[in-house]
Every structure is written in structure tokens, then in C-alpha cells.
Write a structure and sequence with these properties.
Length: 407
């Protein structure tokens, strides 16, 4: 029996999955999920240092003529201390003499002779000193188990001299479709046949999301042919199929799975499109049977398949997040089931895509997000509030926009 969207999300979020790990160099860790808590090995800055090229002084000497007694460069291991009415010439990043109470930028001084300077601007106590630990404190938690390693985590790791980390293994995913009418894009087709666009789509998306994806061809519409593909894939963490889940005479996918001790987790989701989605497992391999209709399969994958993958990746971010905005036009909806609507969020409002029948293939290439309307919504007035679920974000546009915040 079909279950609610709420139950679907709860079931997925509560899946207990075996999580294997490996230790890899940080250069290879981009887009992987961290499998250990990582703590700072040392404070940053490691020592008080100068934020400017200039002079280290004692604040109380700011109005005096100062004698330059030493020069310190970044990387010098210098222990000079400041004396009364003296200063030390210092470069950005260099360790400041221990008793320094202000740094004076070079341009705020006047050179009296080779050995003497005078400060010509106001000075604030402790200005331009970068203090030990103000960025990172030794032993501070830097990266938590379940966090994604992106470029900014690479910053943290490399700044700490951490060369290797423990990450979860990439989930192994197998994708195939069934349907006698389908041929793969590199095959010749006849007039009564169509190209299988779901398999390459799902392979691409699962790869984008950080999975190790295997292509094993395509099943003919016979129980035995589908069984062969399934049996060949039971070492994977998840098998994703599309098509053959409905009630048609040639829908053998369900039958094939059932002959292989398929345990149903749910059979149908009360949602539009994509109701005939089946989820289950054979042993430890999860099985997601998506509907054949291309848009339905892609949207269900975006809504729920992605959550399953977040779980398989070991991520601690497993719930959909949204951006609130307004709908750009009045919108009429057939109430009854939660409805997924693909569209385009242009940064100011959400525009529902007009071409969006479940069987279409072109829709998502013109979309960057979707909204989910509750089952009782039959009308949304222009400017009504909506919650946008991003599909794929690099948030750029073809039109140059003014992105500056004023006031
Ligand atoms: N009598 C009923 N008929 C249908 C129902 C229903 O409830 N009662 N549900 C409809 C809905 S909704 C959907 S969704 C589809 C689901 O059908 P299947 O998952 O069994 O998919 P197929 O019948 O195999 O194919 C549907 C459609 O999609 C095309 N397709 C399939 N696989 C691919 C692929 N890999 N790449 C591109 N296109 C694909 C296929 O040619 C069909 O046009 O059932 C409805 N019918
Ligand atoms: O629900 Mo079907 O999944 O509309 O195309």
C-alpha cells in the first residue's frame, strides 16, 4: 500500500546502513563524507604575528621618536624584545616581539633617518596584531563525523598539516531499466523504439552526488532477464531501476524482484508524479524501483533517491532544506496528493515549468528546483509564499545582476 511523503522520509532517515570506511589522502577527499571527528592539532595563528608590514612598538611610545633596533621577516625565529623608545621593523606574518602592544603600518610612519622613525597617524592599543588561536584553537573540533569534505574543509585540513583522513566508502550503485521498447543511446533504434534516457540520467546524477556507479546494460522485458541483472548486482549498496513498476502486462520488474526474496519497505508513495515507486531490499542491497516515466523518475529521485544516497554516503545532512520565495504567477492545482512541481527559481521568484507531464524528458533541463504542494492546495495566488527545493546549485545566471547589498 502506498505511504505518505512524511512516512517515506521518516523511513529513509531511519534506515540502519552498514557504513564502511577507508583512509585516503586529503587530495582525494573532495566530495567525500568524513568518518571521524577531526580536531585542531595546533592553534592558528600559532604565534602572535603582524597583520601589516611596518613597525612593532610599545603603545606608550607612540608619540616618541623611535629607534629601529631589529628587522623581523615572516618565518624568522626571532626573540627580540622591545625596549623603551625603540621599535622593530616587521613584515606581515612575522612573529611579533613578545611585549608588542601595537603594530604601525609602514605608511603611517615618517622616516627621520636610517635608524629613526616617527608615527604620523593615530594608534589604537593592540592594533594589527594577529593573536595566537584567534582563528583556530588547539583541540577545537574542526570537522564532524558525517560532514562533507568540500574545498573549505580542505583549507582546514591542510592548514593543520593533516595529510590523510578517514572517510566513508563511496556507495556502490547499479542502475538499469527494463522495457522492450528501450534501446541505449549508442544503439540503432527503429520507429517503434525509444532511447533509454533514464539510465544515463540516473547514472550521471548518482555520480554527481558522490557515488560509485556501475553500468550493466539493460534488461529485456522478461522476468529471467531482469533477474539476471539483479543477481549480478547484489554486491552493490543500491540498485536503482526505472520502469516496469506499474500494472501493465509487460511490467516484469516487480515479479523478478519478488522471485529473489525482495523485502518490501514501501510500495507506492502518495505523491504526484511518481506514485508507483517501490523501495525494498534483497539482503543488504537496497532496491529503488522508480517509475518509467522520465520526469516522474527524475523528480522522485530528486525528492527521495537523493535522501537515500545521503544516508548511504554517511552524511549527517539527510533532510531536504528549502528557500522561501514567492510564486511568480497564479497557479491552479488538482488537489488530493502532494504534488511535485518542477520550475525555475531566478533569485526573486519561483516560476512553475509549463511543460511538465510525467512522460516528458525536456523539463528538468529548464529547471533548477521544485516545490512540493500539500494535498489540500488547489490554488496559489501570484506572490504566494512557496518553499523551493533546489535541485542542482551553482547559482549563476545568463543575465548580469547587481548583487551588492545596500544598507
Ligand atoms: N492503468 C494504469 N496505468 C498506469 C498507471 C496506473 O496507475 N494505472 N500509472 C501510470 C504512471 S503514474 C506511471 S509513472 C507509469 C509507470 O509505469 P512503469 O513504471 O511501469 O513504466 P513503464 O510502463 O515501463 O514506462 C512508462 C513510460 O516511461 C517510458 N520509459 C520507461 N523506461 C524508460 C527509460 N529508461 N528511458 C526513457 N523512457 C522510459 C516508457 O516508454 C513509457 O512511456 O505507468 C502509468 N500507467
Ligand atoms: O505518477 Mo506517474 O509517476 O505520474 O508518471
Amino acid at each position: 500500500m502506498a505511504i505518505s511523503v512524511e512516512d517515506t522520509i521518516n523511513i529513509i532517515s531511519q534506515l540502519h546502513l552498514k557504513q564502511n570506511f577507508e583512509i585516503i589522502p586529503i587530495e582525494d577527499a573532495l566530495n567525500r563524507v568524513c568518518a571521524q571527528n577531526i580536531y585542531a592539532t595546533s592553534s592558528l595563528p600559532k604565534f602572535n604575528n603582524s597583520a601589516m608590514d611596518g613597525y612593532a612598538i610599545l603603545y606608550e611610545n607612540k608619540d616618541e621618536e623611535l629607534e629601529v633596533i631589529d628587522t623581523v621577516f615572516a618565518g624568522d625565529n626571532n626573540n627580540t624584545l622591545l625596549k623603551n623608545n625603540c621599535c622593530v621593523k616587521i613584515m606581515t606574518g612575522a612573529r611579533v616581539p613578545n611585549n608588542t602592544t601595537a603594530i604601525i603600518p609602514k605608511e603611517d610612519t615618517h622616516k627621520l633617518n636610517d635608524k629613526k622613525i616617527k608615527i604620523i597617524k593615530n594608534v589604537k592599543k593592540f592594533q594589527h596584531i594577529r593573536y595566537i588561536g584567534e582563528d583556530i584553537k588547539e583541540d577545537e573540533l574542526l570537522i564532524k563525523i558525517g560532514e562533507n569534505i568540500n574545498f573549505s574543509k580542505i583549507t582546514l585540513l591542510s592548514s593543520q598539516g593533516i595529510s590523510h583522513i578517514k572517510v566513508y566508502k563511496k556507495p556502490k550503485i547499479v542502475v538499469f531499466s527494463s522495457g522492450e521498447e528501450l534501446k541505449l543511446h549508442y544503439e540503432k533504434i527503429q520507429d517503434h523504439q525509444i532511447y533509454n534516457s533514464n539510465t544515463p540520467t540516473l547514472i550521471a546524477r548518482a555520480k554527481e552526488l558522490g557515488c560509485d556507479v556501475r553500468f550493466i546494460g539493460q534488461a529485456k522485458d522478461s522476468v529471467d532477464a531482469i533477474k539476471e541483472l539483479i543477481e549480478n548486482s547484489l554486491d552493490a549498496d543500491m540498485i536503482i531501476t526505472s520502469g516496469g513498476v506499474s500494472v501493465g502486462d509487460a511490467d516484469f520488474t516487480k515479479e523478478a524482484f519478488n522471485e529473489l526474496e525482495f523485502e518490501t519497505i514501501f510500495d507506492g508513495i502518495i505523491i504526484k508524479p511518481g506514485k508507483p515507486t517501490v523501495f525494498g531490499k534483497i539482503g543488504d542491497t537496497l532496491i529503488l524501483n522508480l517509475p518509467g516515466n522520465p520526469l516522474a523518475s527524475a523528480m522522485i529521485f530528486e525528492m527521495f533517491g537523493k535522501l537515500i544516497i545521503q544516508k548511504l554516503l554517511g552524511s549527517n545532512e539527510i533532510y531536504p532544506n528549502y528557500i522561501e520565495t514567492n510564486i511568480s504567477q497564479d497557479f491552479k492545482n488538482k488537489a488530493g496528493r502532494i504534488t511535485l512541481l518542477p520550475g525555475f527559481f531566478d533569485g526573486e521568484s519561483f516560476n512553475v515549468c509549463q511543460k511538465r507531464s510525467p512522460g516528458m524528458v525536456s523539463t528538468l533541463s529548464n529547471c533548477n528546483s521544485m516545490i512540493a504542494l500539500n494535498e489540500n492546495v488547489d490554488f496559489l495566488k501570484e506572490n504566494a509564499k512557496v518553499k523551493v527545493l533546489p535541485i542542482n546549485w551553482k547559482f549563476f545566471t545568463e543575465i548580469k545582476k547587481d548583487f551588492l547589498t545596500n544598507e
